[in-house]
Amino acid sequence: MATVNVDNMLTRLRQKRAIGKRRKIIVCTMISFMVTLVQWYYDNFRVKEPSHDWDEEMRSYLNRMYNGKEVDCIDQFRISKCAFKKLCRILEENGGLVRTRNISIEEYVAIFLKIIAHNLKYRVIGFDYYRSIETISQQFNKVLYAMMRISEEYIKFQPSTVGSSERSKWQWFENCLGALDGTHIPVTVSAEERPRYRNRKGDISTNVLGVCAPNLRFIYVLPGWEGSASDARILPDALRRNNRFHVARDKYYLVDAGYTNGPGFLAPYRGTRYHLSEWSGNN
User: Fold this and answer.
1) CA 82 to chain centre
2) Is the pLDDT assigned to residue 49 strictly greater than 60?
3) Where are the beta strands (DSSP E) in the chain?
4) CA-based angle 182:262:231, to the nearest 5?
5) Between residues 205 and 214, which one has the greater pLDDT?
6) How far is CA 252 from CA 172, 176, 216, 262, 265, in A?
7) Count of Cβ atoms closer than 10 Å to residue 131 Cβ
8) How confident is the model at residue 62 (pLDDT cuts 50, 70, 90)?
9) Which of 112, 164, 261, 266 has the most CB atoms around its CB within 10 Å?
10) What residue stretches are annotated with the DDE Tnp4 domain (predicted)?
11) For residue 101, is pLDDT > 80?
């Protein structure tokens, strides 16, 4: 009798398991059918966004800039259409600018000119030209380097000499090559770097070393130092780096009281007050 009851219990358990498996199969089948139905409805009846050929739209935009109206090219790039095409040819032939499979010379130059003409951010240009910020940065720098390569050939300084009125002042500084000083330029930096760039007046700036010849032409500039750095700290760095500031033997530059006297540099006498009003004009 006990054996029969055990067999009946096992039979009922097997039946329940079989029924549970069938239910799972039915539920999974219904879910799969519903998912397929929803996907079919979505693909056939949803409101589709119009497809865009971004590359074609960008080419059309560029073509309108440098092949359209003259005023549009001047407004966007600050140069005429003729000058734009000539610049593209010069940068390609002499500047080493190379077109790629996806980027033309015209696009390179157009992006570069628009950034410097309107002081635009990379992300703004990237949206207009359907390019990533990294791509825009790379394109800008490639054109910048190409411009630097042709600069010596196409950018010429006009001959300049010191006027007679100014020459009378410089006659007291025999062998003097010019003057140098640091100047603070306001900058925007991250919150973590602000203490380094805060100068003694409390402003956030970068301290730039500038060296001028007697004709007031800049002959050396060293940017990049934080505003908290003193002038006396920046000058030694300029003398040591690879593209260093060189002072000819037995020559010197005039410096202010923020520097010390030494070979190549002449500072004012300590404790002596100098008034610019005494040396203004043609005295």
Assistant:
1) 27
2) no
3) 176-186, 205-212, 218-226, 252-254, 265-266
4) 20
5) 205
6) 13, 5, 16, 9, 5
7) 21
8) confident
9) 112
10) 180-271
11) yes
